[in-house]
Amino acid sequence: MAQKKMTLEELRKLREEKRHSVQVRDTEGKTIQVTVGMGTSGIAAGAKETLQTLVAELAKHELTNVRVRQSGGLGLEHAEPTIEVRVPKMPAVIYGRVTPDVVRRIVNHHIIGRELVDEHIYDRPAADILDAGDHPIVNGE
Amino acid sequence: MPYASFCLVCRGTACESSKADTLYDEIKQHVAANGLNDQVQVLRTGCFGFCEQGPIVKVLPDEAFYVQVVPEDAEELVHEHLLKGRPVERLIYREPGVHALGNIDQISFYQKQFRVALRNCGFIDPENIEEYIAREGYVALERVLFEMSADDVIKELEISGLRGRGGGGFPTWKKWKFTKDAQSDQKYIVLNADEGDPGAYMDRSMLEGDPHSMIESMAIAGYTVGADTGYVYVRAEYPLAIKRLRTAIAQAEEYGLLGDNILGSGFSFRIEIRLGAGAFVCGEETALLLSIQGERGMPVQRPPYPAVKGLWGKPTVINNVETMANIPVIIMRGGAWFAKIGTETSKGTKVFALTGNVRNSGLIEVPMGIKLREIVYNIGGGIPGDKKFKAVQSGGPSGGMISYENLDTEIDYETLTALGSMMGSGGLIVMDEDNSMVDVARFYLDFTVDESCGKCVPCRVGGRQILHLLEKISKGEGTMEDIQRIEEIGKTMKETSLCGLGKTAPNPALSALRYFRDEFHEKIPAEVREDAV
Lengths: 141, 533
Known about the structure:
heterodimer; A: 4 helices; B: 5-stranded mixed sheet; 15 strands
């Protein structure tokens, strides 16, 4: 972050450049994105071990096209640790109860083998309101 | 050869009981029989939280969302959709305006959650300001600084109907207006992140998952009321939240979104963090302000209210974390948008920490007016072991029980108060048939007795006496008079305590008595009970 104090124009330009890049990151050859939920409860449930195993497993298979990032809690506290995996041309998937063993399966089966890992798939708890301009709740329905 | 399709069968406990396991087996068999094993992966998933419509099957990447699928449907589903690529219309989820094919994101409201305050939690990397900016971050601040007057902002908040999420439910626009109208050389913005209710972690999650929304909202508040300094009061037990907030403040300063002359607008604003030592009473606003000033955190008489005479005697806006999390959205989407969500008196959504004896515990955000039943049974997935629901404790140690008869009450500030509970900050602890209400009341009184600052007599002495009586009853040594005495002391505490802590401390005991009086009677030895009756 070499940025220095921005003007209004610079902020708007930066936002435009980065827009949606949270979802789709194809910069620097990183086509796959794995997000680890690293809130206090996630960490208490073992998210740090999950993250360490994930990074080690990616290194072991020399998977340099995977960007690993962190987020706060998703709201799936009963299923933590959670991770989200986005692989191009595959559905974005949130996995729950991701122990080191499960994360190794996710790397080997989902990221390398292009199949989903059974028994650990969960749903994002709500629609993203940034995409939900015509959401029924605010349309008086 | 990678799979072309993924067929996800819901495996929540409710769905299992409606034959989801047989359905899964049937789908697998038909996939194999149609020679699709290499093309379709059949999987079992966690609960989709839509149990009354279960079992649920999703087909990806087609995004077909099937409901109430029975094992007999498996053959048609596999043959038509997975083999021939023709979705089975009759099983696709529908409701007015929704056809659940190809747009699962748009129908995600089937889960009954709607995330405004939590919009970024779980989406962005909280330690990277650019990810916040990418998701409409600082758009609201931009708009306020360059397109809106202070009165415009307050007007928008008034239209939105936003009320304080820390417990009391005071209209946010009024707070801001009082401070804006107060004449002073110096004003302050304070973020109350002193979350202390047992079982509640809304503030922690928002600070950890989306710290920049706090910075943006505090700056907006500063601009509106004419303050150039803000304080975040957060408890030291939240080290990760503090770390992320510090990082966020440093990044905002670096990017020119905090500090002097923000974005060249001429407006300057700074934020400092003050750590609390974990006293529950410091969540009370006057005690909190004293604690920031380096004094002992004890409540003082109001009025004057902090909006007029607050930190170091200067006009001060104090808002709770969740209240602030809503501000940027209200500015971006408009107050009218926000006011469409919720009930007549309580607009918007509410974040709850759903814990206790419930399957899917977690942080949830739902529109005001949702029924408790929907929270416990749809979002929460019901009670483990299919035990009987007994009550929900809402509002933490200041709140009360909501019993089975009131499961269908539409939750808002007023309805909860009418039930003898309160919104509080949003803890919801589910209790099943095995929990003793006498013990639950005792637990909360034990907490508030510990946390009473001791300044006023009703709270210091009254709380201890109620706790003592509850312990006596719990041990089977109580009398009918003891029950009456709890109610008398409780009433006195409510009427005469200095601050909210003492005023609300008897609530758990009083509401337990209101809804579960029988349980207290059962704990009283029979010979004493007969005498009294």
